[in-house]
Structures are given as C-alpha cells and as structure tokens.
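Researcher: Next entry in the queue.
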Amino acid sequence: MFYEGNKILTMVEQKKIPLGIQCFTGNTELVEVMGATGFDFVMFDCVHSGNDVRAMEELVRTATLAGMASYIRVPDAHNETDVRRAVEAGAEGLVLRDVHSVDDIKAAANAAYFLPKGDRRICPSTRSANYNFRRFVEFTERNNRTVTLVPEIENPDGVAHLEEICAHPDVHMLIFAQGNLAYKRGEGNAMDKGAQTAVDNQTVLRVAKKHNVAVIGGPVLTPTAEACRRALQDGVTVFCLGLDSMAFRSWCEDTVRALADGVEGVSEWTRPPVPESGFTDDRPAPSKAAPKLTRAG
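Model: Structure for this entry, 297 residues:
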C-alpha cells in the first residue's frame, strides 16, 4: 500500500506547513536530494517538460522512497488517459492546468476516481494498486478517499467561477497562477505587479478561505524568509517554492559570479565577462561589498 491518507492534507489539518518544489528535469537524483533536504512533496510537470508516462512512474517511486508525496500536473483535465495514468503511477494529487469551470474538475474526477465517485477503469496490474488483485477493492476505496484535485486558477473564467470550483468536494487545495493570468488580463509579464491580477489574488484568497480550500503558493523564485512570512500572512498555507531547473540555473549564476568577483583585480589572471542573468532585477544577486560613503562637512 502506497498511502493510507493524503499526506499534504493531513499536514494542513494539523496546522503544519507543507513544502513542495516543482520538478521539470525528470532527474531521480534531484528528487532524492529534495526528499533528503526536507521537502514534503514534489510537483512533477507534464505540461512544459519532457516527462512522459514511463518516466513519471519511476519519478513517483523515487519520491515515495525519499519520503515525499507526488503531485502530477497533467496536460488536459478532459483527457481520461492523462488523468488515469497519473494516478496509476501513484500520485496522491493531480494538478489541473487552466481550469475554466467546475466542469473541468468533474471531468478529471470522473477519470481519477472509481465508482461510485467516478468512472475510472479497473486494473489491479498498476503501481498504485500494488499489483494486487486480492486487495483491489480496498485499494479503490483508499484511492477515492485520498486522491485530491488541485485546480490552477490562471484565466479570467477560472476567477469568475471560483465559487463553484472551490465548492467541489474533491478540491481541497488550489494554485493561483499569476503569470498566465496576467498575460490573459493584458498585463504582460507583470505577474503580481498588475492591478487586476492583484485584485484577482485577493479574490482567490477570500473565496478559498470561505470554502476551507488551502492556497498553494509562496515566493517561487526568491524564497527569502521575509517573503515566506508575507505569503503566510496573506493566506498561503501550502508552500511550493522553486523549480529544479531554474534553481540549478540560479546556483550556476551565483557560482560564476562569485568566482568573477573573487578574482577581479587580484592578479593578472582574469575571467571572461559574466553572462546576463536569466532572472529579473527583483531577484537578489550576490555582489561585492561596496565601500561606505561618508559625507564631507
């Protein structure tokens, strides 16, 4: 048996803050590092990354052994095969992209749950069922109790139908995807700086709280203590911080700049110019300490 209860929802019920990270690389070694360093869950992306069905099963297996729950971001909530294969791999939750209305939730629920909640096909020869025919009925009941659906609110329709989405009995968490919503609101890549997106954010926090739905969020690219504190005060209770590929880029940039700054002017040995950062100016960057300026007179 791979789960008796939903790990992340149990933590939320106990007022313990779960911490997750997004995985785009599909690298099992990095997944092991995530578990070893204290992450509680990992969100495997199947929308923008090259993760396929076979790789997903191995990634979920690695996450389980590393002590983490697995959430899989499926490409299409209406694709029965996408949804079913994700839960058959052993995910305890499905992240549903670009949700427009509760109909998207219902479509995913129909494929993720067995009767009487849904219409999922039965097959004991899957990882989530532990390849066990004898205990298959117990497994179906456990699946229907523990698997949760996580809608991403990233378009104006999703905001408009938020009450119905949050009222669905299998929605216990949601993600407010500011980036895509800002684009669709005509605010470019402003994200949390857009005026309408800021209003949407408050709407999501208010409606989610009303329906006892946890909001997944936090400072994704720059997880400072102060930024995490503000997110918690705003109403985020499940933190998902960082993307493995972007985190590695950040480490690479800091390492290259550290060497360049460290050797500058020390001897005739020099480094090539540091490439442009892939992050915005909002991201704190290591820099050489500047001498304090004093005002004459």
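Model: The chain has a mean pLDDT of 91.
Researcher: Noted, moving on.
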